[in-house]
Amino acid sequence: MKVSRLLQHYPNVRVDCDSRERGLPVTSSATGSAVTMHIGELAEKTGLSLRTIRHYDEVGLLKASARTEGGFRLYTQEDHSRLMVIRRMKPLGFSLDEMMALLKVIDTMQGGVAGSNNTSVRAELDAFVAEAVERRQKLQDQLAMADEFLELLRMQ
Q1: Mean pLDDT of all residues in 69-96
Q2: Type and span of the H or E element at 28
Q3: pLDDT tens for each residue of 14-25
Q4: What is the rounded distance in angstroms from the CA atom of residue 43 to the CA atom of residue 35?
Q5: How far apart, in Å, are the Cα atoms of 44 and each of 5, 13, 38, 40, 87?
Q6: Do 73 and 104 fall within a single domain?
Q7: Residues sharing a CB contact under 8 Å with residue 149, sequence separation 6 or more, in sequence order
Q8: Is residue 15 part of a domain?
Q9: Is the pLDDT of residue 77 over 70?
Q10: Residue-number span of the structural domain to which 129 is assigned
Q11: Is residue 105 assigned to a domain?
């Protein structure tokens, strides 16, 4: 659907100038409106490669919110925020399955999904927090060893 037709049906949708000029569709979600961006812009904003983002789409970790008539992936600000959570999990060594599980917990907690007040969901989130703290400590210990090693080299 063309931007002009979308704007007729969804008058509260915001469109940035670049999207309007390129004729990109704009999506409207239940929570309001969203300006979309192509995968290249998302990659630039997150520092992740196009290949990585496509892989996340293929495995279901981060699906594109929409596609252009030509089939190009379009992402929203919500998608960007979700991808930043994923990006922050990478250095801690979380697997794709662990990332999917945590995103499911986050979606449940934030979205008011049935069961979001469930103590088991809260316990899952607490377990992820504890795991992240433990993994962060391991990284910090490795960094301390690297600093010691550099100091030894400098003393030579």
Answers
A1: 95
A2: strand 27-29
A3: 333 333 334 444
A4: 16
A5: 29, 24, 10, 6, 13
A6: no
A7: none
A8: no
A9: yes
A10: 93-155
A11: yes
